[in-house]
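Please review this pair:
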Amino acid sequence: MKRIRYLSLLWMLLTGITAWAQEFNPTNPAEPGQLTTKLILKVSPAGAGSASSNSGTNIVPGTSVTVNASPSTGWQFAYWINGNGEQVDTRSYTFTKADKTETLTAYFTFNPGAPGEPAELPYKLTLEKTEGGSVSGKGFYKAGTTVNIYASPSSGYDFDGWYKADGTLYSEDASTSYTMGEGAMTLTARFTFNPENPAEPGEVNGFRLKLTATDGGTARANDYNLKTGEATTVTASANSGYVFDGWYQGTTKVSAAASFEYTMGDSGTTLEARFLFSPASPDEPMQIQQRKFSFMLRNTVTKPGTTVDFPILLTPRATLGDMTFQLNFDPRLNVDFDHATVGETSTPYTLTREEVLEGDVTYDEGYKSYRFTLTGGSMVVNDGETPTVTPIVTFPFVIADDIETGTAYRVTINQISITNDDGSTQTAGTRNGLLSVYKLGDTNGDNKVNSADVLNMVSVSLQKETEVFIPEVSDLNEDSKISSADVLGVVNIVLEK
């Protein structure tokens, strides 16, 4: 009897009450008759990221709502200020919607991270070394920047001097500085073997403490040969445009203090000082170099139990060579990496990947992240040629049958480094994407399939305007149009519930 009533209603709607359908305009996302209150999401500063809700903006009081903050390239999530003025440090958190308008603001801090972002600066300082020591202070710096560099000889070696590429001596001081000119520079630290010093650390002379550093600063210690239980002070100093991130032993962060006392264990060890690119203001990178490339991720809508292609679109304004980038996505999404395809370019690229794990400086908690490298190819853009949007890589996203629906899953791209045709490197502008998943037949996006969706379908089939309509989950017979057959399909879904 219930089915007959629905079918009778459908026939009447399609044949005799066009005017009524014309007036219908269902609310989103609440059921007709239910009162909703507004949720307003803001981002500070503007453009630093995005904020999303799994329940839309008009929400029935008492509903459990999950909000998520996603930083843009070069930014890091700091905290939320919720509707009660309280600070919430969790990037994704759940709360109960109140019976009033609530405004939530996601705050971000500028911190592009390492190692990808510094590539957008024009001049690279490369520090090389001979056998017998380590160096620190390399990185990307503006012309005129004074950069501190440091050479640390190993046990049994003496520091000989810093040398330029042509072999001329630059400085005899292990700890010195270099002022960047209008171009890249390579300095080599030379070490000489000194037989008067112990060649290898041992039980008597102690164990070797080795210090390394990422781009952007120097690392040094008061003593490099220590017996078990002996301590020394290690110090990290950030150069201009960088901030100190921490001391790491492998993937473990052992200290966040730039200077701390390290106690030697029962074997030699290596400590790495890590630095993050952090210019004086968010505008600085754009003032240094105009971006020649941009990456864009599409906003895609799909339903559970499907596989959807998700392309990474590249717009080049100059010839480019090898490139690397990091793709980050919600762990509830599955990516079929084995069937990823590389777009057609002037010379074909080879695609490789590695997972970004916890402890990596670019690891973003709450996301699955992979670092991709495209090598051996090129994309030629001639002078004056109009830039074209190219799907550089397309990833198939496999949507599980039991995935949470009514949700927009964030997909972001960052840590980009592109090789120019002259061998220099730079980063690119980005626009992140969303992969939204809705139930089949949820035409108005309220995460329910009911009579409101039937009425929504009727309005569209009669070519009447509706407030919200999601065609990707409304074309039930997949004939690329909305018709009475699709309306009947939604009716059947409602009846089978």
Notes: Confidence is low (pLDDT under 50) at residues 14-33, 112-121, 197-204, 280-290. The two ends are 15 Å apart (CA to CA).
